[in-house]
Design a protein that fits this description.
Layout (H helix, E strand, L loop, with lengths): L4 H11 L7 E5 L12 E2 L9 E2 L3 E4 L6 E8 L14 E5 L11 E4 L4 E3 L2 E4 L9 E2 L10 E3 L7 H9 L4 E5 L3 E6 L4 E2 L10 E2 L2 H12 L2 E4 L9 H12 L2 E5 L10 H6 L4 E6 L3 E2 L5 E5 L2 E6 L3 H10 L2 H8 L7 E6 L3 E2 L5 E11 L2 E6 L8 H5 L2 E5 L5 E2 L4 E6 L2
Parallel strand pairs: 5-6, 13-16, 13-17, 14-15, 17-21, 19-24, 22-25
Antiparallel strand pairs: 1-12, 2-11, 3-10, 4-6, 4-7, 5-9, 8-9, 18-20, 20-21, 22-28, 23-27, 24-25, 24-26, 26-28
Helix pairs in contact: 3-6
């Protein structure tokens, strides 16, 4: 009864109404990476007047070819004071306002300037080298849609539109918990049978890159009831919780039962038809998602990015889009029929051709996933990809 990753995500989102994030305002200079909470429309035409696309001479297209008298020069940021008469031209910089009466700009390299006149030797078309009013944006036109995650060019656009206080969604607070008696802090010297808790830092960094704020919760031991108490406490001050470890099928694996004890809807998906990451848990308490990731480092990182990412996007209020590219395998990849496989790969640029070198799929290793830049997606209907196959690779965040 295991679900595919696609069906698992669809099932979860159909059952859980993730609470809409709160809207807040931030300064424009602090808006990078934030998620826009409102549509932004143009407050006027851009440009507000025709502007020159070249350094040259503004003129009437009907006067070319011919000799024109130079009436003067337009300064940047200033408009020519009167309509330009036929037979005259005015020198204009790139971005300068084209005067009334002019409808074309001849580039300076295509004109011959001599003794107060300019010769335009070739015919020029009306509108040539002129950016017409409103050619960039029209007043009332949608400039940026809500749910857009703001990048550097977006901030430039907002500044152009005069938006200095940006309506954004508050970043969701996500509690990160690690479970297991074998875990010790990174600064500890682990005894035989113990391991340093590396998962929480990889998970926290990934969540921050996705747009969330992190709340690190204490490591949970394997005492009965400890995980339920820890999750209940975490969800009092967080919008979601992610726990690693304790989700496989076994006597010590307590995540599903711990979540079920917290309330409805409880566990929605337990186990996926996927490698790595079969024991993944997708659950919720009310509108707050609770995600149980496998304890193995590779599985935890891959499943967070490949499966849980749409849920995190919903918490952040943004549209989900996975960054993928096509690459050529330089080694064979085999999978299990009927299962989706996510194979970590090293990406290499070989003379403009991107190749993907498959890495050993060992869930328990930390070094393998650290060497990978993404994972090749092997769909369930494919049993093997030979070397030379072009595959879809999802980049790690």
């Amino acid at each position: 009864n295991l679900l595919s990753p696609h069906d698992a995500i669809a099932t979860f989102l159909a059952r859980v109404s993730v609470a809409a994030p709160v809207v807040e305002h931030c300064a424009l200079d602090d808006a990078f990476g934030r998620v826009l909470a409102r549509d932004v429309v143009a407050d006027r035409d851009y440009p507000a007047a025709p502007r020159s696309a070249m350094d040259g001479f503004a003129m009437h297209a009907g006067d070319a070819p011919g000799d024109l008298r130079v009436a003067g020069e337009i300064a940047m940021g200033a408009a020519w004071p009167a309509p330009l008469a036929r037979g005259f031209a005015v020198r204009i910089p790139t971005g300068g306002i084209v005067p009334e009466g002019a409808d074309a700009v001849v580039p300076i390299e295509d004109a011959e300037l001599r003794d107060g006149s300019v010769r335009v030797p070739e015919r020029i078309l009306r509108g040539e080298n002129v950016n017409e009013r409103g050619c960039d944006m029209r007043e009332g036109e949608l400039a940026l849609a809500h749910a857009t995650r703001l990048t550097a060019p977006h901030l430039g656009l907002l500044a152009t539109l005069g938006v200095t206080r940006v309506p954004v969604f508050a970043r969701p607070r996500i509690a990160v918990l690690s479970s297991g008696d074998e875990l010790v802090p990174p600064d500890a010297d682990p005894a035989i049978g113990q391991i340093r808790d590396s998962n929480r830092y990889a998970i926290a960094a990934t969540l921050r890159a996705m747009g969330a704020e992190i709340v690190h919760e204490p490591t949970v031991n394997d005492e009965p009831g400890a995980l339920t108490r820890a999750l209940a406490g975490a969800l009092q001050h967080a919008d979601a919780a992610i726990v690693t470890g304790g989700s496989s099928v076994g006597e010590r694996d307590q995540t599903p039962a711990a979540i079920a004890a917290l309330g409805t809807p409880g566990v929605i998906v337990h186990g996926l038809r996927v490698k790595p990451g079969k024991p993944t848990v997708l659950a919720a308490v009310g509108s707050k998602p609770v995600i149980g990731l496998p304890g193995n480092p590779t599985s935890a990182v891959v499943i967070l990015q490949a499966v849980a990412a749409p849920i995190i996007a919903a918490l952040c209020g943004r549209r989900f889009a996975r960054e993928t590219l096509n690459a050529t395998l330089d080694g064979e990849v085999r999978s299990r029929p009927g299962w989706t496989w996510y194979v970590p790969v090293e990406l290499r640029d070989e003379g403009g051709r991107v190749t993907a070198h498959p890495l050993p799929l060992r869930s328990s290793t930390v070094s393998v996933i650290a060497r990978a830049q993404g994972y090749a997606i092997v769909p369930e209907e494919i049993e093997a990809y030979p070397a030379g196959t072009t595959v879809t690779v999802a980049r790690f965040i």
